[in-house]
Fold these 3 entries.
Entry 1:
Amino acid sequence: MEFMTGIREKEALELSALLDRGRIGQKVKVNGAIHAIRHMGDVAFVVLRKREGLLQCVYEENTSGFDLKDLKEAETVEAEGVLTEEERAVGGVELRLTGIRILSVPTAPLPLPIGKWKLNTSLEAKLNMRSISLRNIRERAKFKLQEGIVRGFRDFLYGQGFTEIHTPKIGAKSAEGGSNLFKLDYFHRPAVLQQSPQLYKQMMVGVFDRVFETAPVFRAEKHNTKRHLNEYTSLDLEMGYIDGFEDLMEMETGFLQYTMELLAKEYQKELQILGITLPKTKQIPVVRFDRAKELVAEKYNRKIRNPFDLEPEEETLIGQYFQEEYDADFVFVTHYPSKKRPFYAMDDPEDNRYTLSFDLLYHGLEITTGGQRIHEYEKLLEKLCARGMSEEGLTQYLDTFRYGMPPHGGLGIGLERLTMKLVGEDNVRETTLYPRDLSRLEP
């Protein structure tokens, strides 16, 4: 009888183990994909791609125990050799090959030059062949940093007493309503794909006090811009017993500080590959919506065309203003107009044209929307009625408030947008693994 007793140590080593200088001079075994082959006469460099990065292997004619002609790019192999120090190699080590075993052979040449430092090809080509283009080290690094952002979000919120939840993405009614809904037939009943987990996470505040989720959301917006997607990943949190919406901005500032420290510590390699300087998060300025519009109108001689909305150009100028005046990478814009916020947003008691809400702009792009919610049942009904909305499909949500809810609020962060600004791209598709937009359903 055979039993599983846990994970056995493998003979083939990972990069982190190879970088242990105690193994220098030893014969080791390693597996990986052939990323590139560089011929140098009697000597050649066979570069292996591993999950942790690249390993330079040295082929020497007559001593490596195989014919270099038998190797081709994209083959997966198991290589043996002597580990030696080499300052010029990535990580300061290289493998002097003594043998190689081919694990798999590609049946076609690579369609993209992934072995080059920078993948100089169109975005469409990269997206059409996503699983190949991301084998490029620089392209892959963007998504390692995206992993770090999600990891920072989770780790920080666990440390702040939050519970992770998982809410349905198919529902009878959406949190925000409007026309930008993907509608579907659900066993002969009308249903929609959720624009956010808003209603569910609010209900769970009455259970856990503090909750968060990282999950996809869907917007049937007919936009074809560099900043919009029809499916994206939202980092959502909701917290109860708040004193005001300022508590939420403090929580997000803490998340950003924690995450930037995590990236600096654990993702230094990817930051170096992409040449990234992390944004400043020690202190983030806060400005009212109406005051922000006035500031950019005055400084950049721009007429305020719509006092109750922010145009993309205005967001860009607000980001520029606070970079120039305060050397700030982020800025919180507060008190958004009530007509631009959903029914559950709490109005400012001093001026009900505005709400106790905010957006976080990162270099002029909105990456977060949040605010305080209405937590009293009667006031929720009043807001629904004032907007001419029906209670249909909201019964269980409203019932939650009937039986008592604490003052609470929350926010949602667009993961792909945050990653895009962090890595210095200007199109959100660059930092979306498999984008869904007006024209793309594959791969």
Entry 2:
Amino acid sequence: MNNSLERVLEAAGASKCKWKEPMENHTTFRVGGPADLFVEPESGEALAAMVKICREEQIPFQIVGKGSNLLVGDGGYRGVIFHIGETMAEVHRTGTVLEAQAGITLSALAKFAWENGLTGLEFAAGIPGSLGGAVVMNAGAYDGEMKDVLTEARILDQNGELRWISLEEMELAYRSSRIMREGWVVLGARMNLTRGAGEEILAKMQDLAERRRSKQPLEYPSAGSTFKRPEGYFAGKLIQDAGLAGYSVGGACVSEKHCGFVINRDHATAADIRQVCLDVAAEVYRQTGVTLELEVRCLGDF
């Protein structure tokens, strides 16, 4: 494995690389053991070259963003984690169109839109993720979602090709997309917004932020909404009605402020969090027959 990883390092160029990097530093749950090799690609081309080597050498790899929808096991990850973050976070405006790289945070993107007098991204200001992951899962909140503003995405496809795809080709739906199903990697996106008044845009962002603060347990590490919304139901209400508010395993528990959130309340392990999720899903199913599906992605050795 190490000789194979050396090939990845040779192709990394100016990309930042770290051995045995703790993944707790790169997830909003603040848990997760070390990745064998942690790489922050400097460009889509560098990432494509390193992914090609991983496939040739049969090295396991995963591509992650801000880690806001990720639970990494306490044993870490055997292989390469490619982190699309600050090294790929540029944004540019042409008229009402924003073109941004996948590593930019949604909060920074929404702020850029506001500063340029563009409305349409206010919903994204408080979502704790990056653009790449938001495109993959069609992230949304309150009155908006990514498919409302996206026009194109730059991807690395399963054949190692870098190309742009249209909104229609993305096949975005509730927390899903063709990108997710095909295993494509989002490297950037174009969004078409609308001109608006700066004070109105800011007021809406502040209103949504206050609603989020008042209803969500933002004072604790979490991955946001832990479960997808079952058709015809709300996950948080099902969990609350099942009497699971405050249910805990180790340092992890169901938030009493918002039962749709599993939180790291007190130095939880990834195993604690995963067990709470499993127990909650089992109990809700026992009481109601409704299956709760994790919105959070589990990765690595538990």
Entry 3:
Amino acid sequence: MKNFIVITGPAGCGLSSAEYVFEELGYFVVKNIPSESVNVVIDNLLSKENKIKNICFVSHAIEAKATIETIKKRKDANFRIIIVNCDKDELLKRYALTRRVHPRSVTSKISATEAIEQDIQDILSVVHEADFYVDTTSLTVKQFRAKLYQFIENVEEQKITGVTFISFGIKNGIPQGIDTFFDVRLIPNPYWVEELKTLTGADKEVIDYMNSFPITKEVIDNLTLHLTRHLKEIAKSGRGNYTIGIACSGGQHRSTYVANYLAEYFSKDYRTQAIHRDCPQLNKESD
């Protein structure tokens, strides 16, 4: 059965941050559709031709009640409701800080204060429907994200934090967007062995060669020990995705092997993948 999450709250409470969390987890996000269109969208998503499994509806406060009433009548999907709220004074402060116009101010031609008050009243009218309620008044974005991750992890038993290991060759430059990287050039280089030169770190002959040296195990053991502690803290902080570079000279042998090894090693606790920037043919094999 497909999973649907409906998340709603007053404008400015953090719905955009919540939307990004669900996108990071692979949810298909449907945002601010009129309540009368909800059934049409659900029917389409439930069709046999549609392969999307996890869907998140982000609903504006003005549509919250009608949207929730609509989905409660459906018996053909699993729905969970997340209600986000925030104190009026804090919402006013956020709008003053960002200088954004409240969407309800425009459509209803009312002041920001009145718009926020109406949003909050709409949310309070449905708060009893919540499977999960969170007040973002005193939360940082990071704390809010962490609460959402914890909720999803508890109800879906998902591995929340995604860790990507990118292998690369230092001679070709450091990839953009990595959070940290490790140099594994202490491992003996198979490139200098003629029969291994054209192979990669995914080939058994190369792996056996590298593992014949004690330093290889030492490098990998040190990495796994460090990353076991480090990634626990990353997960606690509410990070949805974390990218680790694994570097060697050319990105063909040592780094590809270590990136694959680490992705497999940590797959029991995190959503992991290995990407090989300088050996792209391996990416097709790991899809």
